[in-house]
Amino acid sequence: MNVGLLGTGHYVPTKVVTNKDMEKIVDTSDEWIRTRTGIEERRIAGDDIDTSDMAFFAAKQALEEANVSAEEIDLILVATVTPDTPFPSVANRLQNRLGCGSVASMDIGAACSGFMYGMVTAKQFIETKAYKKVLVVGVEKLSKITNWEDRNTCVLFGDGAGAAVVGEVSEGKGILSFELGSDGSGGKHLYQDENNQLIMNGREVFKFAVRQMPQSSVNVIEKTGYNKEDVDYLIPHQANIRIMNAARERLGISEDKMATSVKKYGNTSSASIPIALSEAVKDGKIKDNDLVVMVGFGGGLTWGAIAFRY
Ligand code: ACO
């Protein structure tokens, strides 16, 4: 059976916070942020919008694009490290708000790799014929765990949501290969502390990411039997343009074949890949039959990559 995308959706808050705005909050500069990260602005959700609200908007759009009703969804998976509350989960909230049946719903915690974990989990349930249609969401309201006095981290993050409806697709399409991994010994480099704030050793995470993202990208392509030259589009986790370029260069593909929404949205953790995916579909950057690689890394440490034919 071939398992792939039936529809995608995304939502970002309307409030834009530019690098110039960040200069008023911490001792930083537009030039530093652009050259070190590629980020120009980010979206920040107000007090009236929580994680599940963003997840709901993105999920609605994905269901519409897929032409699938909420009642047809058999399982809801939400990747997030910033749920409204640890329980009920964001997935439980979505089940009710979307008007799905009394179906299974759960959150997945794998930080920025969470959407990869969600997609691969969905694939297993569909292949075993346990479920037909799975809603997978990546969503974060990172602004609520950001230390707005720490210039090392606060300039990097943003809020948003991306979603996909996953189900059976035609022969030759869908997920061709995947890789998931974790290394808990690196947990000390990126975590949430006792004050619920995000702590990161940027240099260590950078070193891990520039090694892992290119390697995982190559691994999933090798598993498909295709060559690097066959890749039509790359969607790396949108954390830092320098890390993203390391993966792109390793695959040997040109700049225009890589999603770069990090410029507009910063690092939205679990949401970054599905937002970029949904935008690429809507902008026509991913076309019918394209070979696409999605690859993420994040806190845990975790990583994950998927090669699929759209
Ligand atoms: N503005 C100005 N100066 C800054 C800022 C800032 N916002 N932040 C740090 N600096 C300073 C530092 O204090 C340091 O000064 P020092 O040399 O006097 O100590 C200097 O800039 C250089 O710091 P470096 O750490 O060498 O900068 P680097 O080139 O490594 O870039 C960055 C830092 C952007 C954080 C990079 O390390 C990075 O991207 N790391 C990976 C982060 C990441 O991708 N995280 C993703 C996972 S997040 C998640 O999963 C939720």
Automatic annotation (TrEMBL):
Region listing for ACP-binding, in residue ranges: 238-242
Active site (catalytic residues): 112, 237, 267
InterPro entries: ACP_syn_III_C, ACP_syn_III_N, FabH, Thiolase-like
Known EC number: 2.3.1.180
Short name of one Pfam family: ACP_syn_III_C
Subcellular location: Cytoplasm
Ranges of residues in domain Beta-ketoacyl-[acyl-carrier-protein] synthase III C-terminal: 222-310
Keywords, comma-separated and alphabetical: Acyltransferase, Cytoplasm, Fatty acid biosynthesis, Fatty acid metabolism, Lipid biosynthesis, Lipid metabolism, Multifunctional enzyme, Transferase
GO biological process, one term: fatty acid biosynthetic process
Catalytic activity: butanoyl-CoA + malonyl-[ACP] + H(+) = 3-oxohexanoyl-[ACP] + CO2 + CoA; 2-methylpropanoyl-CoA + malonyl-[ACP] + H(+) = 4-methyl-3-oxopentanoyl-[ACP] + CO2 + CoA; 3-methylbutanoyl-CoA + malonyl-[ACP] + H(+) = 5-methyl-3-oxohexanoyl-[ACP] + CO2 + CoA; malonyl-[ACP] + acetyl-CoA + H(+) = 3-oxobutanoyl-[ACP] + CO2 + CoA
GO cellular component: cytoplasm
Superkingdom of origin: Bacteria
Pathway field: Lipid metabolism; fatty acid biosynthesis
Beta-ketoacyl-[acyl-carrier-protein] synthase III N-terminal domain ranges (all copies): 106-184
GO MF: 3-oxoacyl-[acyl-carrier-protein] synthase activity; beta-ketoacyl-acyl-carrier-protein synthase III activity
The family this protein is said to belong to: Belongs to the thiolase-like superfamily. FabH family.
HAMAP family associated with the record: FabH
Function: Catalyzes the condensation reaction of fatty acid synthesis by the addition to an acyl acceptor of two carbons from malonyl-ACP. Catalyzes the first condensation reaction which initiates fatty acid synthesis and may therefore play a role in governing the total rate of fatty acid production. Possesses both acetoacetyl-ACP synthase and acetyl transacylase activities. Has some substrate specificity for branched chain acyl-CoA, determining the biosynthesis of branched-chain of fatty acids instead of straight-chain.
Domains as described in the record: The last Arg residue of the ACP-binding site is essential for the weak association between ACP/AcpP and FabH.
Subunit structure: Homodimer.
Protein name as catalogued: Beta-ketoacyl-[acyl-carrier-protein] synthase III
Organism: Virgibacillus phasianinus
Designated gene of the protein: fabH
